[in-house]
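Late entry, evening session. Most of the bench is empty. Finally got around to the prediction I had been postponing all week. Sequence below, unchanged from the version circulated by S.P.
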Amino acid sequence: MMTGFSHIHSSFRYLVLFFLIAAVVDAFMAISSGSEYSKRSKLFALGTLVLTHIQALVGLVLYFMGSRGAFQALMNDAGAVMGNSTMRFFSVEHALMMIVAVTLITMGYSKSKKAEGIKKYKTIRVFYTIALIIIFIMIPWPFMKDFGTWF
């Protein structure tokens, strides 16, 4: 079962990235053209919010119940985890920064709902772009030493 969750979490990242990039690009383009907030823009922003929350939920299941034992290893011997760069990445860095990114997306969407006009796009642009940078940095890409797979 955890293998399935791991595959879902690894492949689902592409859908999350697609919506996040689409929302950021849409915000930048709308600001430069002075467009009004559209249904498409709301779809990208809301889709990003929903997908990142689903991804975070699957990630938390893996973190607390997964076969890698990231949480258990951290609780049992934090010193050993912090000394091993791969375990530290999954136990601390990846988990913490992804929660920060999901929080930024949630805050950005919430603040954009309250904003009017072009400020909706500006809010999405700031919060979602910062989250996108964090996510890109913290994904365990296959080309990184000792990390994940493409799917």
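Two things to note before I forget:
The mean pLDDT is 88.
Residues 2 and 62 are 7 Å apart (CA to CA).
Will write this up properly tomorrow.
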